[in-house]
Each structure stands twice: as C-alpha cells, then as structure tokens.
Amino acid sequence: MIGRLNHVAIAVPDLEKATALYRDTLGAKVSAPVPEPDHGVTVVFVELPNTKIELLHPLGEKSPIQGFLDKNPAGGIHHVCYEVEDIIAARDQLKAKGARVLGDGEPKIGAHKKPVLFLHPKDFVGTLVELEQI
Ligand code: CO
C-alpha cells in the first residue's frame, strides 16, 4: 500500500542552528524558512537526492509540535511520511486492520497542498506516520 518515503520530519528547538547543521556540517541543500500558519509550524526543507527532511519549528500559540519539544527539548524525529495513491482506500484498509487514524479520520490538506492523514504512533511501533496522497 505505501509507496515512497516522502519526508522525515524533525522537530527542532532552534531552526537557525538546525538549518546551519544540515547546510554547513552535512552539506545539504536547504530552503529558506517557510511559515505554515495553518499547520502551526515554520518549515525548512532539506533536499536530498532520494527524499526530503523537514525541520519543523513551532509557530504560534498552539503548535502541534510544542508538546513533542517539551518532552524532547533537544529535538527529535517527529514523524515519517509515506506516499499513497489513494488516501481514502488506504485509510479504510488500515482502519479495517485496527489502526487508529488521528483527528476526525478525514484527510486534511497538508503542508504540500495534498491530502494527508496521521496514524497513531502506538499502532506503528512508536512512530507517528503521515500518509500523503500523491
Ligand atoms: Co509531514
């Protein structure tokens, strides 16, 4: 069902430092910071030959990654995103197998303007999983 790894999202307490680490130490191509107020994050996209890394920093009062950073003050992997061809079909198959879909279970338009869903980390070996329809 799942296809390519679309991105790995890393929550970071200091976006400038994390960007410099990926750009200067690891030698990766990084974007300028992109504010995503609808998603409560500012994102720096790290372009790798085969996938992307997204450096996420809280934006605004009720950022969905603030709780994660409170628990992981040094930052850490927040989620992985896999591509699916049909997000409704994927959701229905996963629900039938007992997986929990976060929120109201309906796809939302994600940071890449495509429909996304999140799956409960307790059902996926401790990892928050995002599905994105491509
Ligand atoms: Co994501």
Question: Gist?
Answer:
This protein has 134 residues and is α+β, with helices and mostly antiparallel strands. Helix content is 20%, strand content 35%. The longest helix is centred in the first third of the chain and has 11 residues, at 15-25.
Describe this structure in words.
With 134 residues, this protein is α+β, with helices and mostly antiparallel strands. The protein has a single domain (5-133), classed as 2,3-Dihydroxybiphenyl 1,2-Dioxygenase, domain 1. Helix content is 20%, strand content 35%. It has helices at 15-25, 66-71, 87-96, and strands at residues 5-11, 29-30, 34-36, 41-47, 52-58, 76-84, 108-109, 115-119, 129-133. β7 and β8 (115-119) form a beta hairpin. The radius of gyration is 15 Å and the shape is globular. It starts with a strand and ends with a strand. The model has no long low-confidence stretch (mean pLDDT 96). The structure holds cobalt (II) ion (CO). Cobalt (II) ion is lined by residues 7, 9, 54, 79, 81, 130.
Set down the secondary structure blueprint.
Blueprint lengths: L4 E7 L3 H11 L3 E2 L3 E3 L4 E7 L4 E7 L7 H6 L4 E9 L2 H10 L11 E2 L5 E5 L9 E5 L1
Parallel strand pairs: 1-5, 6-9
Antiparallel strand pairs: 1-6, 2-4, 3-4, 4-5, 7-8, 8-9
Cobalt (II) ion (CO) binds next to strand 1 and strand 6.
- How many alpha or pi helices? 3
Largest sheet: 9 strands, mixed
The CATH architecture designation is: Roll
What hetero molecules are bound to the protein chains? cobalt (II) ion
Give the ordered list of helices and strands.
Answer: EHEEEEHEHEEE
Using only CA atoms, what is the Rg?
15 Å
Number of strands: 9
CATH topology: 2,3-Dihydroxybiphenyl 1,2-Dioxygenase, domain 1
**Percent strand:** 35-45%
CATH C-level category: Alpha Beta
Query: Unreliable stretches, pLDDT < 50, 5 or more residues?
Result: none
Category from helices, strands and their pairing: alpha+beta
Corresponding CATH superfamily:
2,3-Dihydroxybiphenyl 1,2-Dioxygenase, domain 1
Distance between the termini: 13 Å
The tally of domains stands at 1
> Averaged pLDDT, please?
96
Relative helix content: 10-25%
Shape: globular
